[in-house]
Q: What sequence folds into this?
């Protein structure tokens, strides 16, 4: 499942990826892609961060697990490696 925010971010990437493509990237995540976790200021739940590489670009992927995996963010990684908490 993708949040509306994650869908918009995915659509804004220059790769023409759809949700199925993103799910394939998620399925191939490794421990090397892990970038830690953070607690959501809005919900108090843990969100897991990943930075997989795609064609020389580092992506920023934030996931929450609520019975199913919820993709919170899916966009190009910012230089400082952080984004606003959703």
A:
């Amino acid at each position: 499942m993708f949040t509306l925010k994650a869908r918009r971010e995915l659509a804004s990437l220059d790769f023409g990826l759809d949700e199925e493509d993103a799910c394939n990237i998620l399925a191939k995540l490794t421990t090397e892609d892990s970038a830690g976790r953070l607690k959501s200021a809005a919900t108090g739940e843990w969100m897991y961060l990943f930075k997989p590489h795609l064609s020389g670009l580092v992506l920023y992927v934030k996931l929450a697990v609520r019975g199913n995996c919820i993709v919170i963010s899916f966009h190009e990684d910012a230089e400082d490696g952080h984004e606003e908490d959703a």
Remarks:
- The chain has one domain: 4-76.
- Strands lie at 34-39, 46-50, 53-54, 57-66, 68-76.
- DSSP finds two helices and five strands in the chain.
- The chain has a mean pLDDT of 87.
